[in-house]
# Entry
Amino acid sequence: MNNNFRYILDKSSRKHICPGCNKKTFVFYIDTETGEYLPEQYGRCDRESKCSYHHNPYLDGYSKMTWEQEQGKKSELPRNWKPTPKNPTPKAVYFDNETFLQTLQPDRYEHNIFIQNLLKTVQYPFEQTDIEKVIALYYLGTVANGYRAGAVTFPFIDIAGNVRAVQVKQFDKTNHTTGTDFLHSIIEKHHIKNNMPLPKWLRLYIEQEKRISCLFGEHLLSKYPQNPVALVEAPKTAVYGTLYFGLPEHPKDFIWLAVYNKSSFSLNKLKALKGRFVFVFPDLSKDGSTFKEWKNKANDFEKQLPGTRFIFSDLLEKFATAQQKDQGADIADILIKMDWRKFTKFEQKGEMFKKDKINVANAKNVVENKTFFSQPEPLPPVEAYQREPIQAEQPREWSDQIKELEDFFKNTTPPKEPVKLNGCTTITDINNFIENHIATARANSDNKTFLPYLNRVKELKEVLTTNIN
# Structure
């Protein structure tokens, strides 16, 4: 018996959305002579007992029609027949823009754990204005409902402004990851759970193989065409890098981008960096394998991307502890333990760090001089790359103001419910907030670096006074 059929069910593990039951259990028929799928209606659902959808190309005249056409004969098309696309390379399907914009609703940021941690619970809380700028720069959003409520969204937007994917990250109060998802997956699960048909855009979106097909922050490349790039693995790290070293306000400032994960350091993703100076900060690994792997790949990529220079920092590799290497720590884990006020934005004259005076606009000299980003020379610890505190006006006699605030809160019963301090900050534990901020201000009395702690307590006093009156 001859079993050499031209049209057979795809033997790979790839599954598609079934037109019958809307589940991702559909197997397409494939043309063994061309290697291409048949039109999308031809296939079989794996849920044979519950769905039983099966459209066979041998039963509706498709195979006969194809054979007759190849023999030069005329043949009628089967009913509901759709042609096979001439171009086998599928076009990218973008994430639905309206759905994406919902994540950016302003009232959601009060419940965004990642954002609120940066404003209140990290060791050195950031200023609200800086957080707002970073939110706007990367289009960070919030999941409002469901099992990922309060999670932050990291959209991957390509250089043309198309949303390719939206990563969802859940964090605890220390900003350590507790869960990772993708927004399209959350939406798909919601529809399946409620027995609802998938939106057309979502059905087409999940059919494609590659969704995270661009860099996180890639849209900034078109906005800042001359700036050097700082490349890291995770979006969170790119956000931290921007908060510590500043936004790209000048042509010599870094734009911080992320590849997504270790295996995403690939030529297809990095093509967008063609012609740029790219300073790379790989995550740590127990045996340094990530650093070596990325370095070797970058050497090959430079040959295929004319004008592109990948310059690696081995700062973490040289000075990280064994525990940090075992945990796969990254530069964000190091930065978050430091006071961001002691870091400067890259100055217009091109100094990256004050000590070594590295001109990021002349990466060739950086390599030749074997400074911060070269491998042969030993590097000083991270603390050596901090600068003097920013000079700014401040009130004198903090002790008097602290005592006045202590007296006020001593004679005021704070409300049990959360208090909204401003547009981005809601205080849930008022007593803890007051105690920590006053203690920090007292310990650093008249040190302008810690002035925001005193100002936040004064702002809380004004809010409570207004409510009382």
